[in-house]
Amino acid sequence: VQLVESGGGLVQPGGSLRLSCAASGFTFRAYNMRWYRQRPGQERELVAFIGSSNYSTYYTNSVKGRFAISRDNAEERLYLQMNNLKPEDTAMYYCKAVRGQEVYWGQGTQVTVSS
Q: 96-113 burial, b for 16+ CB within 10 Å, e for fewer?
């Protein structure tokens, strides 16, 4: 099982990034998918969620209207489009797959928002 995030980097405030999470080794379409982030010295927090079947979504309040989560079950990829980035979005971003008691994490990709 592998989840591999990519797309992070350094961006100026107001800029955009698109994170990607490539899945392999499990039935991606059957799993609810999540993006988390962890700022330095803080706990990991849920950023966004997308359901496995109805594609229902959830966003934490601080990213509503700026971030969009999506998935491509055929390509077995999860995405996070991040617009109007702010310095407080600086964090390591992780994707997570969940189905019942089965949980898989990626290794993370760093996003730094700074001028």
A: bbeeeeeebbbebbebeb
Tokens 């019942």 belong to residue: 100
How far lies 84's CA from each of 44, 61, 78, in Å? 22, 15, 20
- Cα 81 to Cα 66: distance, rounded to the nearest angstrom: 8
Tell me whether strands 109-113 and 9-11 are parallel, antiparallel or unpaired: parallel
pLDDT averaged per 10 residues in sequence order, the chain, 115 residues:
98 98 97 96 97 92 98 97 97 98 98 97
Q: For the chain, how big is the Rg over CA atoms in Å?
A: 13
Residue 54: per-residue pLDDT: 79
What contacts 42, CB < 8 A, 6 or more positions away?
A: none
- Torsion angle of C-alpha atoms 56, 99, 103, 107, degrees rounded to 10: -40
